[in-house]
């Protein structure tokens, strides 16, 4: 999530379980051959499979590397037993336009797969090498670099495929949270479906059926009612199970990114909206409904089942869009998601029928059917029309058609919810609406909510971020007239500079806002001793989105910028820089036993060894001996907290200097 408010950012840091002394390892890799029985001349694949924690994503290798994110890269050790055929290719990568990087990026979510085709030249076959990748999370504001090894053999007594990658337990926790979220959303959808014109009038009919189905035996009637409710749940859950089997990860990726299903879903939502407005009726084939109704007369459990099946068929014209929305939302490649979604929907949907059948006296308190039911249907039509635009927007962004830019999208929503407000006030009528003599209080409250939402959206036409709608609207980069951007671009104030000096790596590494500093840890320690200032250490990365956000939103604040300019020695340690160091500067890490040959590898190793942290951004304040001056901090857009962090480190540094001078 971009541009979080302070409290939200703090809460996410707390609930994500990311403490400053904790390693973050959100990706687990498995490397294996695509087949084990091979002979000389055969071709097979080296398969790299990633399991990625929820809210995290790994960048792929099939987009422009100059955009900024770190692409996954592979190095294969030379070996006479094989030759590579082409390059490593992703299998199920997502693609999207990223407004932060101003271009199309390719990435993996939940799981990923890449393949390298090789040709066997001799046996035994031995394929080994290393790969590097970047994992980022928009929710927690962290980016993590990873580098791992693989060693695969065929033709020896024991075939092995090993890769050293660890994974945190947060994957299971986040998965459970996702299941609960889809269950609750589906349950609410089931409750909403009850008050549609296709369903609500059937409640009294159903109760009447079960009051007579037991032949005067209340216990038998209640048993049939329980089985009726169970049948509704079973029917919908079977639908979810079938979907789960059919929709694997590849098909889910196709649904979420390809223009064909997204345009199809958009048209389906529009068609249902027109139906809700009264333009035409959508019904199941009459032969199917009639056959189901005919079987109700069998009585007993069989009659209860066909009664439930008839309800599902007859209510399709109202429940179809709700069920479809749940299935689309839950079709993320996980087997349990569609099943849990349909379980939640059917549980809420079956609950009132079962309860009213068991306690028929409650019917006396039930509102009578009338014109209000059609009003519910029309309101759902407006919502279907608004939500359907999301599918068109996905296709538009993915294929860069330029049809539905951000201000066009917002303008359409403003019109839709304005018309909804007028409809709720009785100023707009449809063919099947009853005359509205007066406005009820609930209807007035809904109209106020609709018009308030419109007022909230209006600043979005001029570039306001509309954080509440960030998951629905197209990216701000598609906005033609962004007033806030124009103001920022034309605001006064020049770059801030420190005294010029020659720093190591300064010819290709730079600091933001005109600040000058260092890019080597040891050089910063020497400068601190020489100038008598504390050190501000910035563990960062070229492809770290949240590092750029901190620099743009926090570092740019005058209070922060003044302190960084005047009070600190700044050192930016890029953990993803690929610049290879002279061989005499290479060393073997005490942490993982691997040889560190590049600037990035050495900086990442320093962060892990010293702080047991491997995520960026990460900020540390040190004295000239490398001792901590205060508790390190990470991604947090609260400027006041960052100022306090800097001031506390500076004050502790002065205390240390004073104590040393008094000795």
Strand content: 15-25%
What percent of residues adopt helix (DSSP H or I)?
Answer: 40-55%
Specify the biggest β-sheet.
Answer: 8 strands, antiparallel
Mean pLDDT: 75
Shape: globular
Distance between the termini: 51 Å
Specify Rg, calculated over alpha carbons. Answer: 31 Å
Given helix and strand content, the structural type is: alpha+beta
Number of helices: 19
Task: Tell how many strands the DSSP assignment holds.
Answer: 17
The low-confidence parts are 1-22, 157-174, 492-500
Q: Layout of helices and strands, plus pairs?
A:
Blueprint: H1 6-15, E1 27-33, E2 43-52, E3 56-59, E4 73-76, E5 82-90, E6 94-98, E7 103-109, E8 111-120, E9 125-137, E10 142-154, E11 160-163, H2 170-194, H3 202-213, H4 218-246, H5 249-257, H6 259-276, H7 286-295, H8 300-314, H9 316-330, H10 336-358, H11 371-399, H12 406-424, H13 441-457, H14 483-490, H15 521-531, E12 535-540, H16 545-555, H17 558-567, E13 569-574, E14 587-588, E15 595-596, H18 599-611, E16 615-616, E17 618-622, H19 639-662
Parallel strand pairs: 12-13
Antiparallel strand pairs: 1-2, 2-8, 3-7, 3-9, 4-9, 5-8, 6-7, 9-10, 10-11, 10-16, 12-17, 14-15
